[in-house]
Design goal:
With 184 residues, this protein is an all-alpha fold. It has seven helices and no strands. 77% of the residues lie in helices and 0% in strands.
Length: 184
Amino acid sequence: MFLNEKNLTAVDGQINLIHAIAHIEYSAIDLALDGAYRFRGLPKAYYDDWLAVGDDEIRHFLMLEGLLQDLGSSYGSVAVHDALFEAGQKTLDVVERMAVVPRYLEANGLDATPMILKKLKKLPKSESIEKIIRVLSTILDEEVEHVYKGDVWFSYVCEQKGVSTDLFFEIIKKYYPRSFLTTK
């Protein structure tokens, strides 16, 4: 997502930003609920955690949809990618799912969101920018818990399967080999 100050001061730029994040949250609803449904035989706390994450993701999506409506738009008005949907299709094993979705993809959001917020806070004050900052700050705070839950359950399923948590790096390299490219 290309973010510059000029794009974010324009309504279209704000819509594009919010829509991209809303799509991530929309996909995260599916991934949380799929994770609760697909993987059987885990402790009740696992299902409680992923249903709670799904509930958070629904609320996040609705907050973002509200912002889009305030700007005269709605979810579905901007083309989206299917990378998160593909992650759900590819990770049919609970170890891989816990590595990829919360520990990698959601954790990347924890890295990206503060940078987005920093750019937004540099912009001239406006009601829409202030609303976006509040919503993204709330989402960021709650996503920390999602990554934590993913880490707990990744460690748990690794222990149950008798594998090291270092398997995380192999899984990420398998699905996201560009993550390991280095520049000299």
